[in-house]
Amino acid sequence: MFIICLDLEGVFTPEIWIEVSLKTKIEELKITTRDEPDYDKLMKKRLKILKEHGISLKKIQEIISEMELLPGAKEFLDWLRSKTQIIIVSDSFIEFAMPFMKKLGYPTLFCHDLETDGNGMISNYRLRLDDMKRKTVLALKKLNYEVIAIGDSYNDMGMIKEADHGILFKPPENVVKEFPQFPVTHEYSELIEILSNHLNLK
Amino acid sequence: MFIICLDLEGVFTPEIWIEVSLKTKIEELKITTRDEPDYDKLMKKRLKILKEHGISLKKIQEIISEMELLPGAKEFLDWLRSKTQIIIVSDSFIEFAMPFMKKLGYPTLFCHDLETDGNGMISNYRLRLDDMKRKTVLALKKLNYEVIAIGDSYNDMGMIKEADHGILFKPPENVVKEFPQFPVTHEYSELIEILSNHLNLK
């Protein structure tokens, strides 16, 4: 039996931090896991910048709630959920992701969460688990699932390599070059074609 | 972080085999895990009866597609999914459960599947995993989730005992007597009250 693990940002939604950077006009918030593979370094830097500029969790949530899904994302996910079981596996935080979950029809989401201080500023982030995406795939394999993993970036490669079938979706050039063993897709229609074969759909 | 594992039949839907028994007028199909805790014995017996009466998978799927969710089930699940992450964990089969998943808005479902022969008769059942409900809770705990498990019957007790918090929903008297350590609920409003406390909701 199949289960599909899909990344959130870059697969169903735009990158949150890039949007926050645009809306707050803070250029240095633009770096993502695509640029800095060390997630802890990246997050510490982001939280430091937010603090320096006095940007609260509420302000970020306001920015996120105005963001749209990628065009066709909901339709793709609806198709997928009618055919098989899926889990969204994201290194983002529940406080950021829930407005998107509502727009996607509340698929099950595995992610992390945030700590805030008395002033509503993000004081820290809590990884539910280190190397979470890969460990999620491992746990599902142990539950006797044949796992398909779909993601776009460095922080997805653990789960994509661990899965029975890994697929890249809209990856940057450096990821494509570094991991030539995985099929590369750019449109949901290409994902549907590959998945239909895996899932043995007519 | 919380995740909630919920049984399907008895929690969100009526018991499928009881409905099949009523519609086919085969009295002996009425036994469930409530009566026979040994699931393999129970299933072998059911498949033998279906074969004897010439009842195909398609016929059973027709019966299921006419079944309704329990009153308030969809609203309860919608509330739950807006607050936290959930997985439906069922010892039923994907071929039986999908019409209900559609009605519930495609929550993620962990279950088993069926084999059919050339005549469309169910020839065997495939457990994805033995002791699946308990092992699902174990896997989620290892992924650093605080697990709440909700079920009604004998085949749920593995997951309910393994979870950080177990809750019985509409259980039969024998289950209540045998497992007095777990809170007993009969209405979704009672579940919402207990869960609101666990999830620390205002």
> Count of helical segments of chain A?
9
Name the average pLDDT of chain A.
Answer: 94
Number of domain modules of chain A: 1
Q: What is the CA-atom radius of gyration of chain A, in angstroms?
A: 17 Å
Question: What can be said about the biggest beta sheet of chain A?
Answer: 7 strands, mixed
Largest interface, chains and sizes: A-B, 27 and 27 residues
Q: How many strands appear in the DSSP assignment of chain A? A: 7
Euclidean distance between termini CA atoms of chain A = 17 Å
Fourth CATH level, the homologous superfamily of chain A: HAD superfamily/HAD-like
H and E string of chain A: EHHHHEHEEHEHEHEH
| Helix proportion range of chain A | 40-55%
Which descriptors would you attach to this protein?
7-stranded mixed sheet, homodimer, 202 residues, 7 strands, Rossmann fold, alpha/beta
